[in-house]
Write a structure and sequence with these properties.
Blueprint lengths: L1 E5 L5 E6 L5 E3 L16 E8 L6 E9 L7 E8 L4 E3 L17 E10 L2 E9 L6 E8 L5 E3 L28
Antiparallel strand pairs: 1-2, 2-3, 4-5, 5-6, 6-7, 8-9, 9-10, 10-11
């Protein structure tokens, strides 16, 4: 088992286990903040696919600037589970003023289905802390097109348990 996780210093770590219960952590973060300004204050909430037929891995994560505002989504590729290279710029950012997701994007989860990638992510809009789930597709995992139907998982009815926020969970293809 391989696990990528976020530490309290907002960096991404790695641990490995033979049984899923007893874990050995990699001593240092495997994905660090920066050097770009878009992720100089925060990297967190990774989703990882792999290994592929060449032993490579792909990772999507959220990042934020030094002030931890304007969360965006990033991409990294790896040879093995702990050696990552980040794609320099954010690959998916918030919408324009007044649009859904205008205050930031969080917590991507990605599946590869056939010859494309599908991503579900949390978008923040309508004032801070109004979260809903969005969807995007990509042919290469780097260049994404947001769905015109976003958000794809809206908030619940007023007074319901999910009337204030709906965060991205885990998505599996069945």
């Amino acid at each position: 088992y391989d696990m990528w996780y976020t530490g309290d210093n907002t960096r991404i770590g790695h641990a490995r286990s033979g049984d899923g219960i007893h874990w050995v952590k990699t001593p240092e973060a495997v994905v660090d903040i920066g050097p770009s300004t878009w992720d100089e204050g925060w990297v967190a909430n990774p989703t990882v696919l792999g290994p592929d037929s060449n032993g490579g891995f792909t990772m999507w994560f959220q990042g934020a600037n030094r002030h931890r505002v304007q969360f965006q989504l990033g991409y990294a590729s790896g040879r093995g589970a702990t050696a990552w290279t980040k794609h320099g710029d954010a690959i998916l950012g918030p919408g324009g003023e007044g649009s859904w997701g205008e205050h930031g994007l969080h917590s991507p989860t990605v599946l590869r289905t056939g010859n494309r990638y599908e991503m579900w992510y949390t978008g923040e809009s309508e004032g801070w802390h109004r979260y809903r789930v969005g969807y995007a597709v990509s042919g290469d995992g780097i260049h994404w097109t947001k769905s015109s139907d976003n958000p794809v998982l809206p908030l619940g009815q007023a007074g319901s348990w999910d009337s204030e926020a709906a965060f991205t969970g885990d998505v599996s293809f069945d």
